[in-house]
Design a protein that fits this description.
By secondary structure, this protein is α/β, with parallel strands linked by helices. The protein has two domains: 173 residues, Rossmann fold (3-Layer(aba) Sandwich); 87 residues, Pantoate--beta-alanine Ligase, Chain: A,domain 2. Helices cover 39% and strands 19% of the residues. The protein has a six-stranded parallel sheet with strand order 1-4-3-2-5-6, sandwiched between helices. A hairpin with a 2-residue loop joins strand 8 and strand 9. Helix 6 packs across helix 7 and helix 9 runs antiparallel to helix 10. The longest helix has 16 residues. The protein is globular and about 55 Å long. It is found in: Cytoplasm. Pathway: Cofactor biosynthesis; (R)-pantothenate biosynthesis; (R)-pantothenate from (R)-pantoate and beta-alanine: step 1/1. Pfam families: Pantoate_ligase.
């Protein structure tokens, strides 16, 4: 594969995209914070199915981290990321400095309701989705891409971004991709590298509990009892549970039965200092 171009400015990225669009070629964006793994590479491969050219943004976005979270220690592995993207044939990396994204005087945020205000991750990270929506809106308009690919692992994020793009008429298609997992079921995440060997051995329990809960719900078991017992199993195993809930798959609103619509099981839990999230369909 050829060498991937690296753009550090919006101007340079837009010039390349303008040339591709002038040739009648579609452009896809894959937004990331770097520390790429096979799940990210799957997003790039999916983007290549939909567009002639793929730009991967690598930007550790400070506005989506709360003061107590891991912004400073978030893994930054640009050279390794670039090698992976060259191997898979990505066209370009957008790698802006913070000053390019948030210049002096920057004073705009996006007010979110809908799937961003349903008492899931927003309850524990109240400013997170505001930061995600703001940076994604900027990336979409900066790149002028035709579509953007997001993984389902960050399911609430996917719904927030999809809603925002539609509500603000941003003219970009949001393409979802199923969660990529390790052989033992653990959802791939850049934060998995923080797990100790003992924590890594325990982490796949989250997926197993969700699978068992989904099976119970498909068999018409009592929703509240099944969810409560699954929550207890996770806590007893040694996790610090933020939430395990069954929600409407599109709106993320609470549900009381399978009759309420398509259901998604979502979980967030901590092992030591590492926060893990996951979700599956019922």
């Amino acid at each position: 594969m050829g060498q991937v171009a690296v753009f550090e400015s919006v101007k340079a990225m837009r010039a390349a995209v303008a040339g591709w669009h002038a040739a009648g070629e579609k452009v896809a964006l894959v937004p990331t914070m770097g520390a790429l793994h096979q799940g990210h590479i799957a997003l790039v491969t999916e983007a290549q199915k939909h567009a002639k050219h793929v730009i991967v943004s690598i930007f550790v976005n400070p506005t989506q981290f709360a003061p107590h979270e891991d912004f400073k220690k978030y893994p930054r592995t640009f050279e390794g990321d670039r090698a992976q993207l060259e191997a898979v044939g990505a066209d370009a990396i957008f790698f802006p400095p913070v000053e390019e994204m948030y210049p002096p005087g920057f004073a705009t945020r996006i007010l979110l309701l809908g799937p961003a205000a349903v008492g899931l991750d927003d309850r524990f990270r109240p400013t997170h989705f505001e930061g995600v929506a703001t940076v994604c809106c900027k990336l979409f308009t900066q790149s002028r891409a035709d579509l953007a690919v997001f993984g389902e692992k960050d399911y609430q994020q996917l719904k927030v971004v999809t809603r925002m793009a539609a509500d603000l008429d941003l003219g970009i298609e949001i393409v979802p991709l199923a969660t990529f997992r390790e052989p033992d079921g653990l959802a791939m995440s850049s934060r998995n590298r923080y797990l100790s060997p003992e924590e890594r051995a325990l982490a796949p329990l989250l997926h197993r509990v969700m699978q068992a809960l989904a099976a119970r719900l498909r068999n018409r078991d009592d929703l509240f009892r099944a969810v409560g017992e699954a929550q207890s199993e996770i806590i007893t195993a040694g996790f610090e549970l933020d939430y395990l809930e069954a929600r409407h798959a599109e709106t993320l609103a609470p549900v009381t039965s399978l009759a309420d619509g398509p259901i998604r099981i979502l979980v967030a839990a901590r092992l030591g200092a590492t926060r893990l999230i996951d979700n599956i369909a019922v």
